[in-house]
Amino acid sequence: MTTTPEPAPAVVASAERRLHPWSWLFVLLGSLRQFIVPLVVLVFLGGRRDEGYQLFGALVLVTVLALASVWRYFTYRYRIDGDSLLIRSGLLERSLRQVPFSRIHNVELRQTLLHRLFGVAEVKLESAGGDKPEAQMRVLKLSDALALERLIRHRGRAGDADAPDAADDGDTLLALPTAEIVRLGLVSNRGMVVVGAAFALAWQVLPEDAMAQAMRSLWRQAFGYVRHLDGSVVLNTLTVAGFVLAALALVRAFSVVLAIVRYHGFRLREHGRRLTVERGLLARVRSSVSRRRIQAWTLREGLLHRLFRRRSLAIDTAGSRTDGAQQQDRGLHELAPIATPAACDTLVRHVLARDAWPPRDWLPLHPRAWQRLLLGDVVFAAALVAGLCWYLGGWGAFGLLWLPWAWLAARRQARFAGYHVDDHLVAVREGWWSRHWRFAEIDKLQALQLRQSPLDRRFGMASLWLDTAGANPMAPALRMRYLPLDEARALAERLAGDVARRPLRW
User: Fold this and answer.
1) Radius of gyration from C-alpha coordinates of the chain
2) pLDDT tens digit string along 363-380?
3) Cα 167 to the chain's mean position, in Å?
4) pLDDT tens-digit readout, 60-85
5) For residue 351, what are the contacts with CB-CB under 8 A and spacing of at least 6?
6) How crowded is residue 247: how many other Cβ atoms within 10 Å of its Cβ?
7) How far apart are CA 22 and CA 474, in angstroms?
């Protein structure tokens, strides 16, 4: 997908337009992906006697899907009417959908390798509500898709009238070179997630006991190789540890490959008051969102992030999906997959248009917050020791070694945690081994809740939970845990008054 598009063709108002002539092919391929498992079962896992009927059934299914795809092409129309997009579809049951540009929160252009080969792109227009896009146009000519994106960007400024006009290529806020993407792959666990998912899928799909037999065979071969060394216990232990480290290194290398495929050419641009991200090596994705649609922010810093002196910056938008499984595939969520702490802070200050980040006056938690955090680990240690003693006897007492680590973690977490509230922003920070900062503008808050468990009442503390539109279920909760009770009540009263007086901006 080109980052500096050619001048867009004129879009004539009230003139209906069709999708690209090859759009039926992409609709057909998308439908076949949904039916690929039934087709495979029908063709390959049936009996030999019914082989002819199976092939005939598969052919009939593919023919029906092809006719439906062609049907969709001839019955799908769209046109520009003032500041709205009108979409007409259907033949027997016709529908006319009107999508105002000012209600479109996210614009996404997606190109797979096949899209790039044909010079087309898939366009998704998303609003704040609903579980699916307001419009999904598969597919448009790339120049038409870029023209529609620019048209929405320039005409959909009902709330951004003061925004300066910008060139089509915009101002670059962040670009990730290959070295940064390699670091991203090293600090992420995408490789482990994919390998784990593939392992689980293989265990379910392959014939019964096939995976178990494969694992036993692999174990016997590895154990036989170690015994063949005929070395000492230390040598055998080092050999096994070497195998484990080699496997982890391969998984981490796989994470690097996945990061390069997903984030190659990552570039964050600003077009007036709209942010656009373009990324991808094989499939190119271009997502766009208005800055005022940003509801909350998340800064993350894991152990490997600190080793490389890096952080990641993500956002929640008003058009976020509530389904966590597909959260990362819809809309714009990552402003900085990886960047230096200074670059992340600069980006936050620029997009928020405020100089008050990062806050300097973080307020601490309740003095006994570390004890409250430690209680969960004490219960876990008791259950661990009980299980180990039942299985190993007296050796299970070694499970108590978890308690010193839990004590250290609770103390460090309570020391790092804190919160900040001013006239415009509310922010919290949590963690120790893996840290995060979660913050939002007060104008974006929708609701707040003061919570107190029986243990909280015993410790004289309470927690304040805040909610924004389009909260990402994969992100940490925006909460202020384990505050002194009077302090939590006063803070809840103050924020409740601010939320009630101020209009919601989303």
Assistant:
1) 27
2) 999 999 999 999 988 998
3) 29
4) 777 888 888 888 888 888 988 888 88
5) 275, 291, 294, 335
6) 11
7) 37
Q: How many residues does the chain have?
A: 506
The answer, yes or no, to whether the previous bond of 139 is cis (omega within 30 of 0) is: yes
Neighbours of 449 (CB within 10 A): 11
pLDDT tens figures, 100-139: 887 787 888 999 989 999 999 999 888 765 567 788 888 8
Q: Answer for the pair 69, 31: CB distance below 8 angstroms, yes or no.
A: yes
Boundaries of every domain in the chain: 20-75, 185-263, 369-413
173's tokens: 């806020």
Tokens coding 60: 């009939």
Q: How far apart are the first and last CA of the chain?
A: 30
- C-alpha dihedral, 55 to 59 to 62 to 65, nearest 10°: -130
**HEC letters along 361-382:** CCECCCCCHHHHHHHHHHHHHH
Distance CA 308, CA 168 (A): 34
> Which of 412, 273, 287, 282 has the alpha carbon at shortest distance from 337?
287
Q: Cα–Cα distance between 477 and 480 in angstroms, integer? A: 9
Which tokens go with 176? 């990730």
